[in-house]
């Protein structure tokens, strides 16, 4: 079995054993989204107007909360050192771990998003673009997040620091992710291909950056 | 003179700008110099302490 | 290139340049401030507020140039392990954050009379706000490790990641801005460009030079300070090692 499938299978098995982690992220996504009507009021017009942005922002925050899971356990129990010493190609390891993270948090977020959009009165034309935008955008979120998660390994107050490092880098995804949904609603379509472009760019660069960060963390 | 400082009615924006930029630039310079002095003193102290040990 | 890698050699060159850079900074400020504040005429569109531009534009320019310096230093540090490149990035970062903050504040103070509000989500202001967060992240990460060497490498990687992202962020924000606020974009976008004429260029360039020279002068001072800190750390470490060895010998 190749390095990729071994690491992926292992991480998925671990995630399955601790499925409460994934559920917590989804629960956070739901509660954070539901807070907005309480802060803004239940008027359908206003909620429909802000729905794409709210769902995207809360999805980003939910993903952010789950990022430290990618490497922290392996870092603390020494698996990471072993992986590096074994000479396995580190970018491939990172890619496998990011894929596992995306499958266990990105995909549930995508599945959950239409339900939350209903509570915000998202217009009917918005649902398919919403899921498509999340489908194309969340891989970038996991990839960029993995770089941040690798950088903060071993720091004091890692979680807060991680949000400061990673959230500014999410802004392009947020801009185009919401624009795709709003474009479909207002009838001025915005191509989701830009999100795919971001994902490809992140796919080519982030595994290398994350493995450089892991190497210096394990030193 | 008062007319000059009035800056065509924009005094309330122009002078704070210049004040803040001055504060920023001088602030960076002062903290840099203080840090440099403190470290120079620390380094000299270490050096003389070591010379004392070695003798 | 390798001549610059040696800290002693590098500092010899830097110290030789220092009086010139510092002197030039003082001279340019002495010439530039009176031109910017007194002798240059008010702009026909912006009136006296154009005087804010003479410090806003240099701050913004340095905010970007410092990040470029840091990215170059971080790359040189990660590729060739030049310690001086790392120290340059480290020494420059707080200055970059200050310049970005000043560019934002002066931009807001210019915007209030021009736009009628302190803040608009104009592409340039927004990009600088994000740049400010990138600086804060860099400073926070460099500072978060017990072992300062680890912090150096992590911060260098973050700096490079950020430098790849800055153009993407700027592109996204500009696009977003034209999507949502075409009218304000126009107002904000051509604030300087539309009114370029000779009377503005002279103070602008003198102040640009003054700020840049100030940056180089203070950067050299900060580098001296960082090098001393590294020497102190090494001395402490070797002292501790000697102490341990003596202690073991005594046992």
Task: Produce the secondary structure layout.
The complex is a heterotrimer of chains A (219), B (55) and C (251).
Chain A: H1 3-17, H2 19-40, H3 44-66, H4 72-77, H5 79-85, H6 90-119, H7 127-151, H8 158-186, H9 193-218
Chain B: H1 2-6, H2 11-54
Chain C: H1 2-5, H2 7-39, H3 50-80, H4 83-115, H5 123-142, H6 148-180, H7 182-189, H8 198-250
Notes on the structure:
- The complex is a heterotrimer of chains A (219), B (55) and C (251).
- Chain A is mainly α.
- Chain A has one domain.
- Chain A contains nine helices and no strands.
- In chain A, helix 7 runs antiparallel to helix 8 and helix 7 runs parallel beside helix 9.
- Chain A is elongated.
- Chain B has 55 residues and is mainly α.
- Helix content of chain B is 89%, strand content 0%.
- Chain B is built from two helices and no strands.
- Chain B is rod-shaped.
- Chain B starts with a helix and ends with a helix.
- Chain C is 86% helix and 0% strand.
- Chain C starts with a helix and ends with a helix.
- The radius of gyration of chain C is 22 Å and the shape is globular.
- Chain C is mainly alpha-helical and 251 residues long.
- Chain C has one domain.
- At the B-C interface, helix 2 of B face helix 3, helix 4 and helix 8 of C.
Search tags:
heterotrimer, B: 55 residues, mainly alpha, 2 helices, 89% helix, C: 251 residues, 8 helices, 0% strand, globular
Helix content of chain A: over 70%
- How confident overall, as mean pLDDT of chain B? 86
- Tell me about the largest β-sheet of chain B: none
Question: Judging from the principal axes of the Cα atoms, what is the shape of chain B?
Answer: rod-shaped
Largest sheet features of chain A: none
Question: How many DSSP-defined strands of chain A?
Answer: 0
Count of helix runs of chain A: 9
Oligomeric status of the shown chains? heterotrimer
Percentage of residues in DSSP E strands of chain B: under 5%
What integer value in Å does the Rg of chain A equal?
Answer: 18 Å
Q: Biggest interface, and residues per chain?
A: B-C, 28 and 36 residues
Low-confidence stretches of chain A are: none
**Number of separate structural domains of chain A:** 1
Rg of chain B computed from alpha carbons, rounded to a whole number of angstroms: 22 Å
The assigned structural class of chain B equals mainly alpha
Number of strands of chain B: 0
Order of helices and strands of chain A: HHHHHHHHH
Detail the poorly predicted runs of chain B.
none
- Mean of residue pLDDT values of chain A: 92
